[in-house]
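Apologies for my clumsy wording, but could you write out the amino acids of a protein and the tokens describing how it folds?
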Amino acid sequence: ATFVGVRDKESIATFVTNGFCSWNKALERFSSHEKFSVHRAASQSISAFEKGEHVGSLMLAGKECDMQHARISLLKIITLLQFLAAQGLAFRGHTDENLNFVKLLRLRSEDLCTFVQESLYYALIIDETADSSVKEQVSISFRIVKDDFSVEELFFGFYETPLTNANTLFSIVKDVLLQFNFDIRNCRGQCYDGASNVSGVLSGVQARVKHEEPRAVYVHCMAHSSNLPVWNFLSLMRELIGFIRSSPKRLASFETLQEMEAPAAQRLRPFCPTRWCLRATSLRSVASNYGTLMTFLEEIDSTNSSDTGTKANGFVTQLRKFETFFILHLVLLILERVELVNTSLQRASLHFQEAQRMIFSLNETIQQLRNNGFEDLWKETSAEAEQLDLEEPCLPRVRKVSTRIEGGSSAHVFATPMDVHRKLFYQIFYHVTRSLDLRFESDVQNHLTQMEQFVTGSEMIKVEQVTDFYADDLDKQRLKLHRVMFLDIALQKNRVFSVEDVVSFLKTKGNEHLRTVLPEYSKFIRILLIVPISSCTAERSFSSLRRVKNYLRTSMGQMRLNNVAVLNVIVVVEVMNIGCIFSGFIHSLCKSMGSWLEKRMCKLSAGT
């Protein structure tokens, strides 16, 4: 049966029942009539009549078509279940949306390159590491912002390189852009760690990219920035943990002793090379097992006369010092707060302005801890040190200062051990706060802060400051007009204070049309969101590299490594086009085995 509406009934009356008579408007009426379902149904009926097709046969053919589609779908579902079962993977997840089964069923045909090209503008994220075969691998990722302001960081692969100097890395960047047909003139951001080969202001990769495209804003990885100031304090703890965990025999002996002395204490955790949030966990494991560690190391020292015993003796000597215990708790006090921010900085969707506010809050927290935290820390560590029978805090030996160095002035003499550690407390906090200030006070920060002020309606920032920097990216008059229009609309409902507020407003249901109505303003927001905050996407790819290229796969070629790594890093595997893979495999196989096999495979594929 054909379901018709009011307009369809009028069309039936005009063209079937009464007959058409408005010949002065014939072309207009015929064009509109073609759109109605009545006309389409009549066309299909006359076509079937001319072909001599029976209604019953048409229904049977439709049923067979439905059965074929259902069979294909069922085959895919069964193969997915077979894959999950063979690999020992869970069918279920934390939520229905995270089911492995559902994720595999959502394989889509989009291409990574298409994502970047459709976004037009992109940011570059690079980091390097050595794989299990001691080859240097450069991880390349791109950050894009879609029309709905959703941010994605896409991993594109590893690139083996014998050298990691700036010239070699920049050549890799140019080769990658050429390979994927990305224009360097569309690069609007870049993020690397603090190594001079990439961050150098004169000849680093960031300087070379900015020479090609001045609008490619460089940001030092903020997750690295906030972590570097405290990293030097952790070397002793890292070596101590490595000493125990590097030997299965020592680790088993320590865990046995731990079960007897402190069964409730957490296991000794390693320092993860790519995940910052685990480092505070490692320090907490040392602090909770402090007494057990000393007992274990003393046993090794007394029973082993080799280098192992000597190392154990050195560790015991350091652990028995009150200064080591005090610094451990002080660094843990700082690092726990830093790690909270680091965890947030690893989000791919994070934008610069939001990250800047996180760093500002971290700085304020550390300053407050510096001003008010010493007395509590001293009391806590002194009480615990007494329980552990550690050495009492003591005054350092007074050294005579050479007259050639200090001009004959005498060295400062502390009155009490508490004063010595108070100075140490302030020194560590000074280096932490100073490092944070140096890392995050830069021309880039000032520039992006001014851009945010312009977005939120500050009269201090003129539109010329924006368009002078971004040049032909933005039209000055349209941007100025669209900003005024947006602020007029937004201020009627809510006050916007940041780029985050603007994005939230434009993504709110009922306001989506503003992206189209105010295209220049929306484009400017996307450009600001493109600037990356951290290179954590590259760090995550290193974790995948260790899983994919393990000891048994050190002979894996670079092409296969890239293919497997991309599939592994892109967790939802949404870039696979199964149909293209299927057709491409058949085509390549048929070319090598002849036309007969090509016909046979096509018949088999049609049958499934």
